[in-house]
Design a protein that fits this description.
Blueprint: H1 10-19, E1 24-27, H2 34-45, E2 48-51, H3 52-60, H4 64-71, H5 73-87, E3 97-100, H6 109-118, E4 120-125, H7 128-135, H8 149-164, E5 169-172, H9 178-191
Parallel strand pairs: 1-3, 1-4, 2-3, 4-5
Helix pairs in contact: 2-9, 3-5, 4-5, 5-6, 7-8
Bound molecules: shikimate-3-phosphate.
Shikimate-3-phosphate (S3P) binds at residues 30, 34, 53, 64, 102-104, 141-143.
């Protein structure tokens, strides 16, 4: 039997949830499914779920496209770093949370260091065709609003891959039910130490 494909039993999941002593932080490209997979993973583990992009929008009282348009990417990255630092702060009961980050968060050296030091980074990975299918319908990603979005995804994926690779856990998020990806993450978390 393929262990990575079989869902752990409730008892195994309970034992795993007890053992996880840091927030589980999903990193990877736009469109890979960090938010949907993160919500499901949190529900299975009985953890809370936080979407870092949403937390940034709440803190700024502005949408991400608006932040990019008014203040630029560098300003957004600064806000993203501060928000992620807050979400990872143990004193705020960050343990027992799954955090989905925006695709560029782990690319920023300071944010990456924070995540590697205080969380369990899980790199969700997909091929560019799958990413493109998932982002094509939405216009909420400022980095894809100029030029050919497929080319941009290809370029960003190539640039970012060596950095995402620093995450201790790597899981393929194929097209198809997100539950399969959640199961693969649970199995890898069981092996993580
Ligand atoms: C970005 C990804 C977006 C969002 C912003 C920048 C990126 O989040 O943070 O548009 O640099 O890849 P998602 O990965 O959730 O789309």
């Amino acid at each position: 039997m393929d262990v990575e494909a079989s869902t752990p039993s409730p008892r195994e999941i309970e034992a795993l949830a007890r053992r996880i002593d840091r927030p589980v932080v999903l990193v990877g490209m736009m469109g890979v499914g960090k938010t949907s997979v993160g919500k499901r993973l949190a529900a299975v583990l009985g953890f809370g779920f936080v979407d870092a992009d949403e937390a940034i929008e709440q803190a700024a009282q502005m949408s991400i496209p608006e932040i990019f348009e008014r203040y630029g990417e560098a300003y957004f990255r600064g806000g993203e770093r501060r928000v992620i630092a807050r979400l990872l702060d143990e004193r705020r009961e960050a343990v027992g949370n799954v955090i989905a980050t925006g695709g560029g968060a782990f690319v920023d050296p300071a944010t990456r260091a924070l995540i590697l030091d205080h969380g369990i980074a899980v790199w969700l990975d997909s091929d560019v065709d799958t990413l493109f299918d998932r982002v094509a319908r939405k216009a909420n990603r400022p980095l894809l609003q100029q030029g050919d979005p497929r080319e941009t995804l290809l370029r960003l994926k190539a640039e970012r891959e060596p950095l995402y690779r620093q995450a201790p856990i790597h899981v393929e998020s194929r097209s198809g039910p997100h539950q399969r990806t959640v199961t693969a993450i649970l199995r890898k978390l069981e092996q993580w130490q």
